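Entry 12.
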Amino acid sequence: TAGIYSVPLKSPSAAGCVFYVDYVLKGTPDANRPLTFAFNGGPGAASVWLHMGGLGPKRVVIGEEGAVLPPPARYESNPYTWLEFTDLEFVDPVGTGFSRSEPDTAKTRKTFYGVKQDVETMAEFIRIYLTENQRWLSPLFLVGESYGGTRVSALTGYLQQTYGIDLNAAVLIS
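Predicted 3D structure (tokens):
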């Protein structure tokens, strides 16, 4: 499922429209199934690299030495997907991928750009997602690649202190 959640910050005149792609394994009770939020680096890096290059159920076909192949791009099933043992949420922070500020002006974009603002927005996104999808009892994991590792490190304490959300693990990829 692809979707967008509107995530308000402290400013009543701005919200972040956060895009995500959600993979949930059917036939497993949600509360018992682990849930992983995955973030790529930044600034400007959408979660597509973890999504289509590492953890997702499909991956982009590359050459034997890891080189990008000439167009057209192709994808295949990923035999190493993490979907077998956890539901996956690939999240694009505001300013990456399809995520934008609303309204999308230079002034409102600034309310989301910064380490503190990024952590507050992503924590609120996680809180909203857990509530909307009734996943508060699921074992919870965060994965961050490159700057996403910094984001995940900061989110770990912020989620617990602000919302009482305890993680089962954090994975830092760099």
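Annotation: The mean pLDDT is 91. Residues 110 and 116 are 12 Å apart (CA to CA).
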